[in-house]
Amino acid sequence: MTKVKPFTSKADIKAQASLWVSKIDRGLSNKDKLDFQLWVNQSDFHRKTLFSLAALWDDLSVLNELSALFTLEKPIQKKHNVIAKYSVAAGIAFILLFAGNFFVNITPFVNDNIEKRFVEVRTLQTEIGQQTRFSLSDGSRIKLNTNSLVEVSYSKNNRLLTLIKGEANFDVAKDKSRPFTVTVGEKSFTALGTIFNVKRKSNENMELVVTEGQVLMTKSNQPLNKIAKMLSTLPKEKLPGLLITSGEIATIENNIQTSNIKTSFEQIQRELAWQQGMLVFNGKPLDEALAEISRYTTTTFEIKDVELNNIKVAGYFKANDIDGLLKSLSSNFNIQFEKVNENSIHLSLNTTK
């Protein structure tokens, strides 16, 4: 998980505090503890809000954990009455509903141990040429590439997302009790806490890049709860699918996995260069390179001379810099272009040189 950004309003700070209390109850990783320290040290209000919510949380382990993290903090009296237990749930519900864009469409479960988990149903979308980051209620983060659409459906037992189109990078908050599953057509990619990238080229063709942890690739009709249990208990060879680990790229064509390779750091960086607004080609045929570039703009390209398809493109390109691309094609490959209209460009060999 990346560093928590500071919030300016009290409502935002209270919303973030309630999320930290829930995370502490589940258990913090070493990285979470560092992020937590950065957050809580931003102001006295951050600190006081956190301890106020923790005092009402119906689990002594949260206060014990806070006591270990802040040895100088004065002990807080635990409230045991039923009203206190349900008032914190109601308070958190109010905070979450009015905390601005940080939480969207979140409803708390007010029940034994369920008040700490939230249902979240929302649609995340980017337009052509747009790339946007989103934060989810469990602390997970998503970055959507151009012209992408993801549907989020969290329940008390599962974290289910559907990549309808495009490409997304998922930075998954650890939660062993709720698997994080991304479905793409007939395939599902499940993790408990990791970072991975999924690119949907079509209903049957896709690519998975795992940069941290492990992702289990299965058919989308597999029961999610069983998958989560299997991930935690079974050895790799007994899992009901293929386990893709950090540094591996899996390619699926016609819903069949065609390759699963351990690749270099440089290749991973090329695959994920879109996150920095760049495209990197390493000997890709011109027509394929142009198809990739077209994802980031409303401009379409038409190759008029078939021999141009034999050209291999290599280099770094800014995702939406059409003029820079045309200049490069002209100087490096003797290709001339004709702008037919605002959204269409014809490419052909320059026979005048």
Any chance you could write out the topology, listing elements then pairs?
Layout: H1 10-26, H2 30-40, H3 44-56, H4 60-69, H5 82-97, E1 106-108, E2 118-125, E3 132-135, E4 141-144, E5 149-154, E6 159-171, E7 180-184, E8 187-191, E9 195-200, E10 206-212, E11 214-219, H6 224-233, E12 242-245, E13 248-253, E14 256-262, H7 265-271, E15 278-285, H8 286-294, E16 300-303, E17 312-318, H9 322-333, E18 335-341, E19 344-349
Parallel strand pairs: 6-7, 16-19
Antiparallel strand pairs: 1-2, 2-5, 3-4, 4-6, 5-6, 6-9, 7-8, 8-11, 9-10, 10-13, 11-12, 13-14, 15-17, 18-19
Any overview of this molecule?
The protein has 353 residues and is α+β, with helices and mostly antiparallel strands. Helices cover 30% and strands 33% of the residues. The protein is built from nine helices and 19 strands. A hairpin with a 4-residue loop joins strand 5 and strand 6.
Portion of residues within helices: 25-40%
Structural class: alpha+beta
Number of strand elements: 19
Task: Tell me the series of helices and strands, N- to C-terminal.
Answer: HHHHHEEEEEEEEEEEHEEEHEHEEHEE
Large-scale geometry: globular
Sheet with the most strands? Answer: 14 strands, mixed
Averaging pLDDT over every residue, what do you get?
77
Count the DSSP helices: 9
Strand content: 25-35%
How far the N terminus sits from the C terminus, by CA atoms, comes to: 54 Å
Radius of gyration: 24 Å
**Poorly predicted ranges:** 1-8, 71-117
